[in-house]
Amino acid sequence: MSFAHDQLPLATGFEEPSRAEVRDFVTLLKPRVMSLVVFTALVGIVLAPGDLHPALAAISLFCIAIGAGASGALNMWWDADIDAVMTRTRGRPVPAGRMQPGEALAFGLFLSGFSVGTLYLAANWQAAALLAFTIFFYVVIYSMWLKRSTAQNIVIGGAAGAFPPMVGWAVVTGSVSIESITLFLIIFFWTPPHFWALALVKSDDYAKAGVPMLPVVAGPDETRRQILIYSLILVPLGLAPFFLGFGGLVYGAAALLMGAMFLILAVRVFRVREGKDAPKAAKELFAFSILYLFVLFAALLGEALFAAGV
């Protein structure tokens, strides 16, 4: 089975019987990514001023989750050729041959339309438009264009993962604000050090697949330097909610402590460049970066719920 993009008209048909199971369709949704999207969108909904019926909030959150899943399915449809080459992704349903490319495409398109249309009905057109743009940005701007053309793919493409709290905010208010933009920026500047730490470890995979990730194009030393630069921007930005007044003392303390740990690990990645400790340092930063973002958003969510008496 070929996944070359010059053969897409053939690849989107159902010329072979499907062997896909329910779990394969679940895999297309990228559940781990979806969980982060749902969590950050929930924070946007809870922090936003205004009243929203719990049922409508739940439906809106479900739509945002489905939109994230649609993005994942369309990404796996488009990236099946490089997924087949990379160790980390070759077991996915399409490159593994369990699912036809056309099934992934149809599934992703259906979920895209369903999530955007339902969010429009449950919330407002602004939130629906933001969700539609998020799907478009991830699939077309990042997957189809940036990922294969520039080492800055993660920097610019990271915006797709940063939109969910803005969508959540818009669900309640029908607008964006300095608060939702700040949450967007935290995730935006978090994405490069988070992903490049993984890319340092998986650089051979990306090179084999011909994906111009920063370690492949500029080398590991430049990647380490960029990780440190973005970390130095991220950590003070992480304190912004406290100084802007929508993050309290608990959030401020959490952001300060977690930010200090993030910088320590980023500096270690920058300094440790040889031997078995080099990939270990990158893995530790990658793992901690997930905890960092979770703790910051959890602190905001906890403070908001406490203030509301929940």
From TrEMBL:
InterPro entries: Protohaem_IX_farnesylTrfase, UbiA_prenyltransferase, UbiA_prenylTrfase_CS, UbiA_sf. Pfam families: UbiA (PF01040). It catalyses: heme b + (2E,6E)-farnesyl diphosphate + H2O = Fe(II)-heme o + diphosphate. GO terms for biological process: heme O biosynthetic process. Keywords: Cell membrane, Heme biosynthesis, Membrane, Transferase, Transmembrane, Transmembrane helix. It is an enzyme of class 2 (transferase). It is a multi-pass membrane protein. Pathway: Porphyrin-containing compound metabolism; heme O biosynthesis; heme O from protoheme: step 1/1. Its EC number is 2.5.1.141. The chain crosses the membrane at residues 33-50, 56-78, 104-122, 128-146, 153-172, 178-201, 227-244, 250-270, 290-309. PROSITE patterns: UBIA. One of its GO terms (cellular component) is plasma membrane. One of its GO terms (molecular function) is protoheme IX farnesyltransferase activity. It is found in: Cell membrane. Carbon 2 of the heme B porphyrin ring is defined according to the Fischer nomenclature. Converts heme B (protoheme IX) to heme O by substitution of the vinyl group on carbon 2 of heme B porphyrin ring with a hydroxyethyl farnesyl side group. Belongs to the UbiA prenyltransferase family. Protoheme IX farnesyltransferase subfamily. This is Protoheme IX farnesyltransferase. The gene is ctaB.
